[in-house]
Amino acid sequence: MAYLFVGAGQAGCALVDSVFDHERVSTLATPVAVNSTARDLQNLSNVGSESWYGIARGEGLVAGDTAGFEEQVQGGFGREPREADSVASDLVGPMADAFGEQFGEGTPSFAFVFVGLGGGTGCGIGPHVVEAIREFSGPSTDVIAVAVLPNTSGDVTQGEDDATVSATRQADNAVYGLDRLESVVDGVVLVDNQRLAFEDAAEGRFGEFNDYVAAGVVDLISGAVLERIDPGGYESFDPQTIDLQDIVTSLSLSDGVGYAALGRSVVRTRSLAGYFLPFVGRQAVDGDTLADLAVTKRSVADLNPSLAEKAIGQIRAPERYVTDSDYRIEASVIRSRLDSYCPEVNMGLMLTERNLASFTTLLTFEREDIDRIADLETLAAQGRGRA
Ligand SMILES: Nc1nc2c(ncn2[C@@H]2O[C@H](COP(=O)(O)OP(=O)(O)OP(=O)(O)O)[C@@H](O)[C@H]2O)c(=O)[nH]1
Ligand SMILES: [Mg+2]
C-alpha cells in the first residue's frame, strides 16, 4: 500500500466511497471513513465497517466494528464546526493510532483527506485528521486535501430536519474550515458544489459529481499501476508518467499552499458498433476537444484559467492513440492549451486498456485569485454582521 485516503464528514466519506468504487484503487490505497453519524457511514458502498471511525462528544473515537457503534455515534455536530473541532482536538492521538493500524506496515508516502466545507464535521475534524496522519506517518508524508465548497447561490434545502441552511452560515463554516485546513496540508483540490445547477444540488444529485471527481483523482494517482500495464512491453511507447510527487509540486506555490480546480474529459475511442465488431468503428480523438472539455468542466465556478500559476495534465489512451500516427492524440495541442494559461506545466501520457481516451488536469491558483473563496468570505462576513 502506498497511499492513505481519509474521508471526514458526510461529503468527505461519500467522495472516498466513490474513489474506492474503482476496484483496483484498493491495491494502492487504504480507505478510512470518519464521521459523527453512524447512519451516514452505513450508506457507504465500498468502505466497510472495519474502516469506519465515529467521533462523538463523550464517546471519544469509536471503531466501526464496536458493539453498539450506532448508539454511540449519532447526532453529528449539526453544522457546528467549532464543536467538532473541540471534540476532535482531543482525539488526534487515538486517530493517529487508528490510522496506523488501518494502514498496516510502514507509512504512506502520500495521503488524501476529503472533507465537505459548510457543515460541522468535515470543517471541524478535517484539520485534526491531517494532524493525526502526520503524527502517525511523520513529516515526510505529503497530505493533499480535497475540499467541497458549499453551494451558496441561495439558502439550500437540506431535507430532513431544519429544512434550510442559510448560505451565510455555510459560507462562515467553509471559511473557518478552509483557513485551518490550509495551515496543515500541502495542497488543496477544490470541488465546488456551485458547479451543479441550483435545482441539481439536492443531495441525490451529488453522486454524479462525486463520481466525476473520483474518476479524476483515480486518473491522477494511478500511473501505470492500475491498468496493470507494463509500459516496457509496448514498442515505440515512451511513457511520460506524472506521479504523486509531481502533483504535490504542482499544488505547492512559492508563497504557500495552492488551490486547484480539477477538470476531466473522456471520449470513447470506439463507436458502439466497434464493441460488437472488432476493428470496426475506431474513432480519431481531437486533442483540442479533450483539452477544451476538461477545462470547461473544471470543478470550481467563476474561475479564470489564465490566472493559474501551475498546471498538470494526464492523458490516458489506448495504445493505438498513443503510437499510431493515424490516430495519435495531439498531446502537444493539449499541452499548448495549458501553456497558454500558465508558465509551469507538467504533462503525462499513459496507456489504458479501455476504449476510452481521457484527459485530467489540475489548474493551481493562489487563494486570492479564486473568486468563489472571496465570495464565501464576503458572505461569511455579512452573516456575522447580521448576527
Ligand atoms: N459534492 C458533494 N457535496 C456534498 C455531499 N454531501 C454533502 N455535501 C455538501 O457538503 C457540505 C458539507 O456537508 P456535510 O458533508 O453533510 O457535512 P458534515 O461534514 O457531515 O457535517 P455535519 O454538519 O456535522 O453533518 C454541504 O455544503 C453539503 O451540501 C456529497 O456527497 N457530495
Ligand atoms: Mg454529517
Written overview of the protein:
Mean pLDDT is 89; it is low at 158-163. The protein has 14 helices and 15 strands. 37% of the residues lie in helices and 23% in strands. It has an 11-stranded mixed β-sheet with strand order 4-3-2-1-5-6-9-12-15-13-14, sandwiched between helices. A two-stranded antiparallel ribbon has the order 7-8. A two-stranded antiparallel sheet has the order 10-11. A hairpin with a 3-residue loop joins β3 and β4 (60-63). It is globular, with a radius of gyration of 21 Å. The protein is an alpha/beta fold. The longest helix is centred in the middle third of the chain and has 17 residues, at 121-137. The chain has 2 domains: 3-222, 3-Layer(aba) Sandwich (Rossmann fold); 231-369, Tubulin/FtsZ, C-terminal domain (60s Ribosomal Protein L30, Chain: A). α1 packs across α6 and α1 packs across α8. Guanosine-5'-triphosphate is lined by residues 9-11, 14, 36, 76-79, 116, 118-122, 148, 150, 170, 191, 193, 206, 209-210.
